[in-house]
Amino acid sequence: GYGRVGNPVCGDLMEIFIKVRDGKIEDIKFRTFGCGAAIATSSMITEMARGKSLEEAMRITRNDVADALDGLPPQKMHCSNLAADALHAAINDYLSKKQKH
User: Fold this and answer.
1) How far apart are CA 88 and CA 30, in angstroms?
2) Which of these, 59, 65, 55, 67, lies nearest to 30 by C-alpha position?
3) Full pLDDT tens readout for the chain, 101 residues
4) Which of 18, 20, 82, 96 is most buried per CB count within 10 Å?
């Protein structure tokens, strides 16, 4: 599955790629263009989601990502939103492709 989200205000762009096997995220990678906080949240979401079922990964929230990083400055909280949103988009993309088969 593939998820891509961006924030036009700050210019951050995040892409998440997932490989699913037996209903679990077997591998997950990211490509991020943005600030250090955007890169950190991208990396953290991959650590949080790897090995989880799709249902478990869909329950990872924006706040979960920020909490896992021991918080983010208020002006960088939008970065954790991108990471969770990109993961959810990748899962939804995977599920839509699976339904077509």
Assistant:
1) 13
2) 65
3) 999 999 888 788 999 999 999 999 999 999 999 888 889 999 999 999 999 999 999 999 989 998 999 988 888 777 668 999 999 999 999 999 988 86
4) 82
Active site residue 35: no
d(CA 49, CA 59): 10
- Confirm whether 79 is a catalytic residue: yes
Distinct helix (H) and strand (E) counts, the chain: 4, 3
- Find the catalytic residue in 6, 7, 10, 78: 10
**What would the two tokens of residue 42 be?**
């991208």
- Give me the amino acid identity at 48: M
- CA quadruple 27, 87, 95, 60: dihedral positive or negative? positive
